[in-house]
Design brief:
With about 250 residues, the protein is of the alpha+beta class. The chain is about 40% helix and about 15% strand. About 5% of the residues have low confidence.
């Protein structure tokens, strides 16, 4: 059986009160709004800031923090946002940009491959940013832990089912066989209490599943798996109604 088949969802839907209190999100939103307003005022006073890479990274991270708060609030509320068609490649590129400070040290050991045509997905672009950022952060941590020139590759591929696949492959330390079946369980982590909450993969899959997407560990027998990969995850994005456009 493939890894995808072994990872059928067993856990219940996320319980908001158990995983993240709504009051905490409310409290987080206030300083984020203040920080964003301060950044706008700084740009007005110092226009040259806008051209600095570090400043753009800071602004992107502030925007992403706001989106994360919105996404968790969406998990706590009944219902969901209206899905929409979107170009997958630019969304994945944005996820990579959000981790530019960790990607840069890899230099040629990091790769981003996008399909020649602009493949279309269906759902919430923010959910894909969340999932891709989480998987890439995990891959980067895996190669940083190995520390011997290991690679990371992100690919955007048309799926045989008509949707899009975002593959994140790494040559890191790998995942122990006994942990694979539990990867998407809420609060399961191998990183220790101070380094991981055990919610990253669970939330990523919850967000993608709202519109028919999936997040899964790629099996060793998958024909599209990078041959050198120690670990590879896939985000499956469904096509727009009527079929995907390349």
């Amino acid at each position: 059986m493939s890894e995808r088949g072994k990872q059928k969802r067993k856990e219940p839907a996320m319980a908001g009160a158990d995983l993240l209190a709504p009051s905490l999100l409310h409290e987080l939103r206030q300083p984020l709004t203040g920080a964003d307003a301060a950044a706008v005022l700084l740009e007005r006073a110092l226009p040259d800031l806008r051209g600095a890479d570090d400043w753009r990274l800071l602004r992107a991270q502030l925007a992403r923090l706001g989106e994360i708060v919105n996404e968790y609030e969406g998990l706590l509320r009944p219902g969901k946002a209206e899905p929409e068609p979107f170009a997958v490649g630019p969304v994945v590129s944005r996820a990579v940009d959000l981790l530019a400070h960790r990607v840069r040290p890899l230099a040629r050991r990091f790769g981003l491959e996008r399909h020649d045509g602009e493949v279309q997905g269906w759902g919430d672009p923010g959910a894909l940013v969340h999932a891709a950022t989480n998987l890439l952060a995990n891959a980067l941590e895996a190669v940083e832990s190995r520390g011997d020139g290991a690679r990371v590759l992100v690919r955007v591929l048309p799926s045989v089912t008509g949707g899009v696949e975002v593959r994140v492959s790494d040559e890191g330390v790998g995942i122990a066989p006994e942990h694979r079946a539990r990867l998407f369980e809420p609060r399961f982590t191998t990183k220790g209490d101070l380094r991981g909450s055990g919610l990253g993969l669970h939330v990523a899959r919850e967000l993608m599943s709202r519109y028919g997407g999936e997040v899964f560990l790629v099996g060793d027998d998958d024909p599209n798996r990078a041959p050198w990969a120690v670990t590879e995850f896939c985000i499956a994005v469904p096509p727009p109604p009527g079929g995907g456009a390349a």
